Amino acid sequence: MSTTTPAIEPAGQAPERIFVNANLITVDPSRPRAEALAVSGGRITALGDSDEIRALAGPETEIVDLGGRTALPGFIEAHGHPTVSMTTDGPDVVDIRPMTCPTAESVRERIKETIAAAEPGVPLAFVGWDTLLQEGLEEPTRAWLDELAPANPVAILQNSAHMSWGNSLAIKAIGLTRDTPDPAGCHFERDAHGEPTGKAVEAPASLMMIGAPLNPPADRAPALLADEHRLLAARGLTTCGDLGLKGDIREVCAEFARSPQARVRVRAYEMSNAELHTDAVPGQGDAMFRQIGIKMWADGSPWIGNIATSFPYLTNDRTAALGLGPDHRGCANYTAEQARAIAEAYLPRGWQLACHVHGDVAVDMMLDVFEEVLAEHGRPDHRTRFEHCGTMTREQYRRAAKLGITCSLFVDHIYYWGDVLVESLFGERAEDWANARAALDAGIRISFHNDSPVTPVEPLRNIQVAVTRRTRSGARVLGPHNRVTLDEAIRAETIDSAWQLQSEHEVGSLEVGKHADLVVLSDDPYAVDPDTIGDLQVLATYLDGRPTYTA
């Protein structure tokens, strides 16, 4: 009896390409594994064993022998920032993230060397300042930056991207004055005389402080996007959410998506704005680029002290270095009324809303807001999203499930910051950080993400961390009872991410009729020690059956 999934080739027409001799993990419960698949017009037209699929080949069919390697559906980053990362990863920005500069001294040296080598007047931007992981750093001041760089506009973006600091020339370059209004939900710090100090809190203010390096001319965007797509493809990504697209770059992105250089499908969420308006319409675009949602921020980052929690930060030297006083609690970016106004402006127009939220107090506020707005303007299958979900509780997950809210969790926090979360920030409260187990138990479909450029795009590491909850030091496991299974973790990086991005009909699993998007790995994640899954290598990535990356 044949095990081949029925082909959908037109009568008498052979597939354009077939993949054989593979260990295909399909993420399709009706057929979890296969050896081969056929592709025509970028779509999967048959799955089966190698001999059966070879038999479909014609004289012009290209045969790709994967040599027994494991392949999965292409990974999907449900919450990325490719149009931000294209600049932070680009030539105009200097990377000082802890993954690049692990010590305070290495950060200072890279900044000083860059300034010394720069031509006067050239704006300089540094991304990744982190007083928690780069122990010994203190908050940079305008005076310190002025002393370092008297002839260049200089700005530094905190690793969370929720705060930045600039020198006097940077403040002047972006046109910031005492009369400049604060963007909604964020602010520019001012001194006792009302003058800007150079510190900006929350996006978009924190990104505005960087100025020109993060806002290149439109004619440079295609080259930057091409570089970013190559990086994403090398990580095994075939689809990425852009959670915070600026409306003025939408058409550039859509045009780039139609070019041969595009290697990753993008599902875009435009930033909400003060006008509470967008010129786009929900779902406009195609399989390569489509705008589907609106992004809003309920609170900020745990690394700068502005997530709204019912419990305080710990009081110690680390929190003091963040500028947090005893028993500090953060606060929300919006009042409930402001958040409701944003939801009411966009949700009735058919937009999917994605809300950044970390603290349990902010979660409660947004659950109340969405419950009210959905009761009045709800629609079936709205897929409203919560992003990051650091301190979200089991009861809050259950309440979210009842409202039809889905969650995208930043599990990589556990790997890079897990020890700091417990020892320096929240104590035992951190054991439930980014609790994927609680979300799944509540019946929520979840995704994982890296929130690049905050952490490197590494879907395999996300899978490892969700399964093990082990920190980078290897010495600590955060809440072992909160682990998920490997099946659940892989779904969160494939089909359930596709579902969150309203694309499960196109991508996310290897099934007849879907796009032939695959990632080929150096080993089977089911056959290795779970603590080594993140070390598996991406050997090749395919989009519509065509290679976008080969190692």
State the helicity in percent bands: 25-40%
Q: Quick check: average pLDDT? A: 95
| Integer-rounded radius of gyration | 24 Å
Number of strands: 25
Low-confidence stretches: none
Shape label: globular
Distance N terminus to C terminus? 37 Å
User: Beta-strand level of the residues, as a percent range?
Assistant: 15-25%
Largest sheet: 9 strands, mixed
Total of helices: 17
Molecular structure report:
There is one protein chain. With 551 residues, this protein is an alpha/beta fold. 28% of the residues lie in helices and 22% in strands. It has 17 helices and 25 strands. The strands form 4 sheets. Strands 8, 15, 16, 17, 18, 19, 20, 21 and 22 form a 9-stranded mixed sheet that branches. The protein has a 6-stranded mixed sheet with strand order 3-2-7-23-24-25, covered by helices on one side. Strands 9-10-11-12-14-13 form a 6-stranded mixed sheet. A hairpin with a 7-residue loop joins strand 2 and strand 3 (33-34). Helix 10 (336-346) packs across helix 11 (360-377). The model has no long low-confidence stretch (mean pLDDT 95).
